[in-house]
């Protein structure tokens, strides 16, 4: 089942010129603007997220499921590379990654939860719903948004 879902996401990833970092259980981690910087990285990620939400009903129909996804988006600098001596894997880490993870975990099923930094980059091209302030573990109170549609 996860292979079917992630294969669909891989096709979208290629279409939006993004980089798949890894899958962790049922999580699919991707990034924009790496390894080559891109001025449109935030837009590419937003478009991917909207397409992921859109494709889920089709996946559910094909697989006779009623699965939901939650998506978290944050923007900012990351550290990237391969570390360790065994089972090499390209990875990202840093506060930007941690906040994106928090956006996903504090988000709602079927929604795209966006940090203030990402909102600032995307607000002229997309429709957002402001979330009530949230107490985010390790970050304190944050203003966040739900990306709902294209303008």
Q: What this model shows, in words?
A:
The mean pLDDT is 95. The protein contains 4 helices and 10 strands, in the order H-E-E-H-E-E-E-H-E-H-E-E-E-E. A 4-stranded mixed sheet has the order 3-6-10-7. A two-stranded antiparallel ribbon has the order 1-2. A two-stranded antiparallel ribbon has the order 4-5. The longest helix is centred in the middle third of the chain and has 23 residues, at 41-63. It has helices spanning 2-15, 41-63, 95-105, 116-122; strands at residues 19-24, 27-31, 71-73, 79-82, 90-93, 112-114, 126-130, 134-136, 140-142, 145-150. It is an alpha+beta fold and 151 residues long. It is globular.
Largest beta sheet: strand ordering? 3-6-10-7
Question: How much of the polypeptide forms β-strand, as a percent range?
Answer: 25-35%
Total number of strands? 10
Oligomer: single chain
Largest sheet properties: 4 strands, mixed
Q: Could you outline the blueprint of secondary structure elements for this entry?
A:
Layout: H1 2-15, E1 19-24, E2 27-31, H2 41-63, E3 71-73, E4 79-82, E5 90-93, H3 95-105, E6 112-114, H4 116-122, E7 126-130, E8 134-136, E9 140-142, E10 145-150
Parallel strand pairs: 3-6
Antiparallel strand pairs: 1-2, 4-5, 6-10, 7-10, 8-9
Summarize this entry quickly:
This protein has 151 residues and is an alpha+beta fold.
Descriptive tags:
4 helices, 4-stranded mixed beta sheet, alpha+beta, 151 residues, two-stranded antiparallel sheet, 36% helix
């Amino acid at each position: 089942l996860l292979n079917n879902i992630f294969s669909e996401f891989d096709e979208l990833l290629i279409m939006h010129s993004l980089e798949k970092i890894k899958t962790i259980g049922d999580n699919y981690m991707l990034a924009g603007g790496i390894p080559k910087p891109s001025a449109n990285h935030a837009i590419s990620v937003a478009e991917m997220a909207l397409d992921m939400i859109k494709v889920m009903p089709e996946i559910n129909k094909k697989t006779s499921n009623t699965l939901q996804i939650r998506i978290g988006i944050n923007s900012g600098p990351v550290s990237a590379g391969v570390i360790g001596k065994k089972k090499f894997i390209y990875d990202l880490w840093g506060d930007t990654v941690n906040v994106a993870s928090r956006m996903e975990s504090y988000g709602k099923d079927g929604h795209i939860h966006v940090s203030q930094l990402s909102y600032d980059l995307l607000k002229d091209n997309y429709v957002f719903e402001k979330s009530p302030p949230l107490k985010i573990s390790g970050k304190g109170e944050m203003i966040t948004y739900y990306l709902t549609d294209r303008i």
